[in-house]
Input
Amino acid sequence: MARLDVFIMDEAYRQSISEAMSVSGDGLVIVKFGGSVITNKDRLREFREDVCRRLAGELSAWNGDIVLVHGAGSFGHILARQHRLHEGFRDESQLKQVALVQRDVRELNVRVLEALIDSDIRAVSVPPAAAASFRDGSVTRFDPALFSKMMNLCLAPVTFGDVVPDESMRFSICSGDLMMQELARHLRPKAAIFCADVDGVFTSDPRQNADAELISELDREAVQRIKQSESTRADVTGSIKGKLERMLAIAENCEKCIILNGDVPGRLESALRDEEPLSTKVLPG
Ligand code: IPE
Output
C-alpha cells in the first residue's frame, strides 16, 4: 500500500489497485506452479495430479489473497515447439495447432482449478488474453481489473501460459513468467514464489555438472556469471537467462521473490510461512 503513490494513472485503474490491496490477512502472494512440476514435460498432456494436489494443499496455508499462475508443461510446449508457434504465423497448417494448444492448456487449467478448489481455494480462471494484449511476443496492455475484482469477491484468480493473439505475429506464446511479471508490476504482491523442479538457481546446470552450486541470493551480477550449458535448449518461452531477467524485474515489485523446488514436499508451505526453505532468493536491482 505504501507504494501506491508511485502510480499516477486514471481513477478506475487506481481504484482497482487499491481494492486489490485492501484485503486483510497476509496480503497478496503470487505463485507459479511450473509446467515441469505439474506435468511430465516429456510426455504429451501427462498431468502430475498428486504433485499439483499437494502443492494446492500447501498453498492453502496462505491466509490472504492468492493469484496463481501455472505453466503449460507438456500441455503446451511439445506441440508449440513442433509447429513453431512461438515464431508466430508462418502458414495455415499452424492454426489447427493453435486451437489444439489452446484446448490443451485449458484442460490443464481445469485440472489445476479442481485441485485448488478441493483444497478450499476458491479458484477462478483468467486466461491471459482476457487481461492483456500482445505485440511481438511482448505485452502492450495489461489490465489488472479482472484480477482485482475476483479478489474483491475473495476468489483466487488463476492464469497460465497460453497461445495468444498477437498484433504483429498474429499469434504468439505468452509464458506464465510473463504473466507473473505483469501481475507483480501492477499488483505489488508481498511475495512472488516460483515452484520449479530444481532447488533454485545454480551456477551451472546441476544435471550435467556435479560441481554446480545453488545460489542462495541471486542478483544481476550472479545472473551474468551463470554458465548455461550448450545442451540446455531454450524452450518456446525462452532461455534460462531470459527467465532470470524476468525474475530480477519481478523482485523490484515485491518484498520477496523466490524460486524453490515444488517437487519437495513442504518447501512451498515453509516459504509461505516466512521460513527459509532451501531456495534461491532473487534480489532487486
Ligand atoms: C508456456 O508457458 C505456454 C505454452 C507453451 C503454450 P510457460 O513457459 O510458463 O510454461 P512452463 O512453466 O515452462 O511449462
Remarks:
- The domain at 27-282 is CATH 3.40.1160.10 (Carbamate kinase).
- Confidence is low (pLDDT under 50) at residues 1-11.
